[in-house]
Amino acid sequence: MKIRIIMGSKINNRCLKDMVNEYAKRLSSVMEIEIIDFKSTGNDVKEYEKFIKLSEGFYRVALAVEGKQLDSESFAKWFEGKQNKNIAFLIGGAKGLSEILKKKCNELFSLSKLTFAHEHALLLLSEQIYRAYTIIQGHPYHK
Ligand SMILES: C[S@@+](CC[C@H](N)C(=O)[O-])C[C@H]1O[C@@H](n2cnc3c(N)ncnc32)[C@H](O)[C@@H]1O
């Protein structure tokens, strides 16, 4: 299984990067997690093309406030059902993901009704992917 997290904005916070890398490292024996961040151009068409190209062949999940909200156990079940798929999670920059891009995605997931900075959305998503894996494995981390 391969997970690609695509960010329409650069990750600048070093501590946050380290935390995200730590989750990816813990999961590296069972899945590959790749993070691709790029500087936003502010041009919706160019960003659309970039996101689509980078997520070609992946099951696309857009992160958006208005998306579906799951609890961690449900997310783990969803995740388990996607074990033989490659998943791309799309995270927008300051302007968010365009409507046309969200329509191209297979699903829209929300982390909360609160709006987070793109880096915080990345950290929450990474931790929930790790948590999902520990739930599936019955590992005590998820308690
Ligand atoms: C600063 S937010 C963008 C805010 C923008 N005004 C909008 O409405 O989308 C940057 C990105 O973080 C992600 N994000 C922020 N809060 C989120 C939430 N509660 N659930 C899911 N994704 C979220 C989304 O991918 C969003 O495009």
Structure description:
By secondary structure, this protein is α/β, with parallel strands linked by helices. The protein has one domain: SPOUT methyltransferase, trefoil knot domain (Alpha/beta knot), CATH 3.40.1280. Helix content is 42%, strand content 22%. The chain has helices at residues 14-27, 44-54, 72-80, 99-104, 118-137, and strands at 2-7, 32-37, 59-69, 87-91, 107-110. The protein has a five-stranded parallel sheet with strand order 2-1-4-3-5. Helix 1 (14-27) links the parallel strand 1 and strand 2. Helix 1 (14-27) packs parallel to helix 5 (118-137) and helix 3 (72-80) packs across helix 5 (118-137). It is globular. The two termini are 25 Å apart. It binds S-adenosylmethionine (SAM).
Measured by DSSP, the beta-strand proportion falls in 15-25%
CATH topology: Alpha/beta knot
Average of per-residue pLDDT values: 96
Terminal Cα separation, in Å?
Answer: 25 Å
Largest sheet data:
5 strands, parallel
Radius of gyration: 14 Å
- Unreliable stretches, pLDDT < 50, 5 or more residues? none
| CATH level 1 name | Alpha Beta
User: Order of strands side by side in the largest beta sheet?
Assistant: 2-1-4-3-5
Count of alpha/pi helices: 5
Estimate nothing, just give the exact number of structural domains.
Answer: 1
